[in-house]
Amino acid sequence: MNKAKPENVVLGAGSQEILRNAMRAFVSPYRHLVTAAPTFENCTQMARRWKFGIQEVKVDSACRLDLENMISTVRGAGLIFFNNPNNPTATVHGIKTVTDFVERVRRISPDSVILIDEAYHDYVTDPAYESAIPLALATPNVFVARTFSKAYGMAGMRIGYAIGQSDSVKPLARFKMPYNVSVFGVAAAIASLNDPQHIAEERTRNTAARQFTVKALEDLGCKPTDSQANFIFVDIGRPAREFRDGCAKSYVQVGRDFPPFENTHCRISIGTMDEMKKAVEVFREVLRPTAPAPNAGKSGISGLVR
Ligand SMILES: Cc1ncc(COP(=O)(O)O)c(C=O)c1O
Q1: pTM higher than 0.85 for the full model?
Q2: How far apart are CA 187 and CA 210, in angstroms?
Q3: Which residue has the higher pLDDT, 278 or 302?
Q4: Which of 45, 79, 212, 290 lies 20 to 30 A from 136 at CA?
Q5: Is the peptide bond before 38 cis (omega within 30 degrees of 0)?
Q6: Rounded CA separation 270/272 (Å)
């Protein structure tokens, strides 16, 4: 395996700085962005604001990135944004699929840069998944973005990084602020990298709370995707706004709208087990079927709250 050297890494004030500088470095009015819908929107928003071309490919029926359809849009792209696991749908692709995708892009459009955003890497339990960092170190025009904002709990420290071949990440450095990261952020990042046990415990805690919440939602007749993150994307069979407003009355906050799924799906962040037990009580109340209307039997109207 290739070992990373300092020239393989560019630090950012959070991985958002990496994403933003990737947009500046690789996308232009002549080189479009390929991304998914829905996915983490930073790149899409920047492309809209700067009037760059965008190919937004809707996720597939399992809410996974639709790689087949993405491939058909990559020719001539400046940047391909590949969020794995994908926020907000919580799904992953295994390393073999990622490697095949990268190889196909390299054949069709060798100058296009592939950004694999692994912000939620530490929460994945799917055995088919592996980080794409070794792939990025071995392959031109591919890099991985990582952050200390999620499992490491250091969002306020604003530290993340890009890692790949030096020629792939060097263009990012051209756009960074001269003193973009703080000594506190760097010191905390180094300390946490030296404490892998902490991340293992965080993954175990998240997995247990995630399994509990997924099961509770399934028991309520909802359909969560195969969550590999610290949030769940779930088909609740009604507009997210309705569910959100209902939960808010009991002081439980759930995610905002994620078009094109705003009328069916909601994103729910995983807290501690105690928090999720309380939240599930509220979900039960909000999703509870209402008492049948007096004429329900005759008219065939369902008793479910819609
Ligand atoms: C997929 C993904 N990438 C990147 C980020 C940016 O995080 P940060 O700038 O805090 O590293 C987020 C934040 O929500 C995210 O969900």
Answers
A1: yes
A2: 31
A3: 278
A4: 45
A5: yes
A6: 7
